[in-house]
Q: What sequence folds into this?
């Protein structure tokens, strides 16, 4: 609900902010889907059916067979914990997206805080396991961070000037 005196109700939301919001909504939807899948993996019959279904594809493909053998299988009940973590991250990304879509300052600050806190992990992962997708995500998050910091500084400077 927007109050009449709320400055966010009178400012236009930049297209770039809407684009970042869509990016956050997409990440939220993907993580929520992952959470559902992880929760389903807690059922031993699902894991058995999954390994049985993938078996024929792995036959004769040493790379795929090696990958399937290397996938860690936590004890029963652990997949649900991973699902809860994925759902928690999905919720954070959803809240960020809503705040950004509506042009709220708190959404910008939240996105700066969350994005800045995750960049060291992304750098570490890029160092340990470089890949074009990881680099792309790191660059995108870095660009989002820089853009939002510049936007917040400009709005602070404009607020101080009035």
A:
């Amino acid at each position: 609900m927007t109050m009449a005196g709320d400055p966010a109700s009178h400012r236009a939301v930049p297209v770039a902010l809407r684009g970042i919001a869509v990016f956050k909504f997409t990440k939220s939807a993907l993580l929520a889907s992952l959470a559902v899948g992880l929760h389903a993996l807690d059922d031993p019959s699902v894991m058995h059916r999954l390994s049985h279904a993938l078996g024929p594809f792995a036959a004769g493909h040493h790379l795929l067979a090696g990958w399937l053998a290397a996938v860690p299988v936590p004890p029963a009940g652990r997949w649900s914990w991973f699902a809860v973590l994925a759902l928690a991250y999905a919720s954070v990304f959803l809240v960020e997206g809503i705040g950004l879509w509506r042009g709220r300052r708190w959404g910008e600050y939240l996105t700066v805080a969350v994005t800045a806190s995750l960049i060291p992990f992304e750098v570490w992962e890029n160092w340990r396991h470089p890949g074009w997708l990881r680099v792309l995500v790191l660059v995108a998050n870095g660009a989002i961070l820089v853009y939002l910091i510049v936007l917040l500084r400009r709005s602070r400077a404009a607020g101080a000037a009035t």
